[in-house]
UniProtKB/TrEMBL annotation:
The gene is Ppef1. Signal peptide: none annotated. It comes from the Eukaryota. It comes from Sula dactylatra. Pfam families: Metallophos (PF00149). The lineage of its organism: Eukaryota, Metazoa, Chordata, Craniata, Vertebrata. SMART domains: PP2Ac. This is Serine/threonine-protein phosphatase. The keyword Metal-binding applies.
Length: 122
């Protein structure tokens, strides 16, 4: 995705996230399922497999992603683009919790900063 569109996505996602509370309370029932995922660590194949097996996020197919979206794998940026796009489309049905790898120092140490610099030259 061209850097111009990534920047627009990031700005809009930031605006939406700033409006959301720090703590999200979710409830579900037997008739309404929710899929909880974690530790993608830049592995796009894992995210695509989750969506293949469980369906794409929607009002009827809710998701919670428990952090560690980035670092280690080579497709952290693509994962963020996909998750942020779905967050903008379904802000009440896709929830993103920050993990320890969504931290500046961890990004430097485990590769996300390098990935972004390589894909989107400064």
């Amino acid at each position: 995705l061209h850097a111009r569109y990534v920047l627009q996505l990031l700005c809009e996602t930031r605006r939406v996230l700033k409006e959301m509370p720090n703590i999200t309370h979710l409830s579900t029932s037997y008739s309404r399922e929710i899929t909880v995922c974690g530790d993608l660590h830049g592995n796009l194949d894992d995210l695509l497999l989750i969506f293949y097996k469980n369906g794409l996020p929607s009002e009827q197919n809710r998701y919670v992603f428990n952090g560690d979206f980035v670092d280690r794998g080579k497709n952290s940026m693509e994962i963020l683009i996909i998750l942020f796009a779905f967050l903008l489309i379904y802000p009440n049905d896709l929830h993103l919790n920050r993990g320890n790898h969504e931290d500046y120092i961890m990004n430097l140490r485990y590769g996300f900063t390098k990935e972004v610099s390589k894909k989107y030259k400064v």
